[in-house]
Amino acid sequence: PRWYDGQRAAESRQGTLTEYFNSLMGLPMKISRCPHLLNFFKVRPDDLKLPNDS
């Protein structure tokens, strides 16, 4: 299915994103805990939905 290709692409980027996220969290708290960054990484209801089979 089409969503599987997207899932594979996301999984292939997981390491890069993890490294980037860890770098951000290692910055001073005024940066790593700023409202813009916290809002960007906030889990939203749509993030928890499984992809459709289309």
Automatic annotation (TrEMBL):
Positions of the PX domain: 7-43
Record GO terms (molecular function): phosphatidylinositol binding
InterPro entries: NADPH_Oxidase/PX-Domain, PX_dom, PX_dom_sf
Pfam families: PX
Name of the molecule in the record: Neutrophil cytosolic factor 1
Organism ancestry: Eukaryota, Metazoa, Chordata, Craniata, Vertebrata
